[in-house]
Amino acid sequence: MALGVLTLSLSSGAMAIAAPAVPEPVAEAAAAVVEAPAEIVEAVTAEAEAPAPVLLAHQAALELDGAGTAWLGTSTALVLLMTLPGLALFYGGMVRRKNVIATITQSVGVFGVVSLVWFVAGYSLAFGNGGDLNSYIGGFDSLFLNGVTMDTAHSLLPGIPEFLFIAFQMTFAIITPALITGAFAERIKYSGLLLFTALWSLLVYSPIAHWVWGGGFLGSMGVLDFAGGAVVHVNSGVAGLVCAIFLGSRKGYGSEPIVAHNPVLTMIGASLLLVGWIGFNAGSAGAANNLMAVALINTVLAAAAASLTWKIVEVMEKKKPSLIGVLSGMVAGLVAITPAAGFVDPKGAVIIGLIAGPVCYASSVWIKKLLKYDDSLDAFGIHGAGGLLGALLTGVFATTTINSLSEGANFGAQAIGLVWTILFSAIGTLVILVICKYTTGLRVTDAQESEGLDTHLHGEAMDHA
């Protein structure tokens, strides 16, 4: 009996040793591990049931297109390169040595002003939804980029983050008034330029961009403008012509030689414009796809064709092809193909380029001389005339084999769009010039113009005697 009790006691002791009591902290940890999956499930369920973010009228929920986003980011950098340093050097090489710094500084000033105007209100007015007035102007919902988040896209490009879409379109808004500066080079006050740029960007550029690209009435009626023939080039060219006439000619214009001080500088700038224009046109496809590819090849072909035909006309008249002439022809081709780049095939692009060379030459040389206005660096002669030509020929050569949106394209619709653009740009520019004249002033004094804007406006010079 005692042996049995002893045996039972030993067995119980063995059992106690084999299964010791679990410490309380360990038990709690084990229970937490068991309960964790349930908590995760609840969190995922709650996230799935959370209400979708509230979107503004122009927005869509972002469905990220990685390749398209990478390409548009690259294109944004390329288009910004067009203004700084591309256009700055292109214009800077064509003015006289005493005005080089002032001319380049104008492009820098435009960059600064327009970037902030676009952030404050320009984007909202151009690409926002204006409700009952949306046919004519965007809304105020996105002032200071309110409502733009990491998860929003513009409904035009739902695969692209809206912040990137805003930046891409901002580079277009920057270069457009920068192009205008070529019309009044060597005679405008810097303060007047900055005020003009701010008002013009907000009151002229943004509405026209909305009409064509932002859901306005011109886009709705079938006006085709792939990358800015009307919005950028006709708009800036017409504004430049109004500015040139309003400010009057430079001292000595028509009576003494006014010679470009450094064609090589202009060549560097033009080359940067050519490369940047690939982002300008091919980037406007909004994706890394076959439309981007055709817009790219069309851009290069049109530039090449126009550079040759400009050269031919120049040789016929002056017996020698100038470097600045060949470069101007190249830019003319780039301008003319801009509205058509994603609507025409390469054959159409070559034809547009071949026509653009002589047309822009005639506008920059013969018509300017005939009408006696001083469009200093041919803002209207190249951008105005080239943009008009390209926009009209888009209606002729657009084909659905390239872009389904070409369905119904016609010369008449393009012409109507251009009439609206020309009238609004001309009247708006004139009103803004009057405002600037009686506030900051516009034109430098005769003494400042004679001595040079570099030293008088900026206290700098290319060299010192």
From TrEMBL:
It is a multi-pass membrane protein. GO terms for molecular function: ammonium channel activity. Keywords: Ammonia transport, Membrane, Signal, Transmembrane, Transmembrane helix, Transport. GO terms for cellular component: plasma membrane. The keyword Transmembrane applies. It comes from the Bacteria. Residues 70-461 form the Ammonium transporter AmtB-like domain. Its main location: membrane. SUPFAM superfamilies: Ammonium transporter. Residues 1-16 form the signal peptide. Belongs to the ammonia transporter channel (TC 1.A.11.2) family. This is Ammonium transporter.
